[in-house]
Structure formats: C-alpha cells, structure tokens
Amino acid sequence: MTLRWPRLLAGDWLLLSLLLLTCGASFHWLWWQQGNAGELILSADGKVVSRWPLRLDHRFELHGPLGITVVEVHAGRARIASDPSPRQYCVRQGWLSRAGETALCLPNRTAISIGGQDQDDTLAF
Q: What are phi and psi of 16, to 5 degrees?
C-alpha cells in the first residue's frame, strides 16, 4: 500500500499563494515597519520640555518633584533608564520604538512618548 498525496488543482495553488503572500505582508506591516516613528517627546509636569529625533543617540535628565528621571535614546528607540518613583513602572516599560508609544512616571510627573505619523494606541503607567 502506498500513500499518495492528492493532486492540487490550479485554484488550490492560487489560494495557497495568496495565503503565503498575505502572511508575508502581515509580517512586514505589523512587525518590521516601525510606524514612522520620528521623534521623542519629553514631558515634565504636563508640559513638553523637549523634542529629540530618534536617529540621534542621547541621554536626557528630566526633573520632577521626586528627583531626576534619566531617559536614553539609542538606535532609533528610547527608554526611561532610571526614575525615583517607588514602583518603577515606567522603567519596566522598556524600549519604545513605535509612534504613539508612551511611558509615564506618574509619581515624578515625567513622561516620554514617541511621535510621528501612523501612531499606535499604546499606554503604560
């Protein structure tokens, strides 16, 4: 007894090709493309303090009521490296790289967000 694979018809090949093409395009648009992130927006006490292009590496200090929040920009992404807030939620947020992403340090009243076109709806406290 020999196993034989069923023969695929032209419509089957077309459907399989469209499925693979859709998967490849989804990977590109959802994971590879970064949402046209262009700048880092630094805020303290509810006011924009500075804007910085993500393509330039830099280290910032934001002053809040609890102390200094340190922000790093490196390789087209940004993060809060340290903050005097007790729970460190904004530090745990990690690197931000897509337009619309935000990290808030509420006890220290500081925040960073990624600006650009095609902003996602993301928010972390």
A: -65, -40
pTM (2 d.p.): 0.66
Q: For the beta carbon of residue 60, count every other beta carbon within 10 angstroms.
A: 19
Q: How far apart are the first and last CA of the chain?
A: 63
pLDDT at 103 over 90: yes
Of the candidates 107, 100, 46, 76, which has an alpha carbon nearest to the alpha carbon of residue 91?
107
- Please, what CATH class does the domain formed by 37-116 belong to? mainly beta
Q: CA 69 to CA 66: how far, in whole Å?
A: 9
For 60, residues 6+ apart whose C-beta sits below 8 A from its C-beta are 42, 50, 52, 70, 71, 72, 73
pLDDT tens digits, 60-102 = 999 999 999 999 999 889 999 999 999 999 999 999 988 889 9
Fill in the DSSP letter of residue 122.
-
- In the prediction, which pLDDT does 2 show? 73
How would DSSP label each residue in 29-73?
A: IIIIS-TTEEEEEEEETTEEEEEEETTS-EEEEEE-SS-EEEEEE
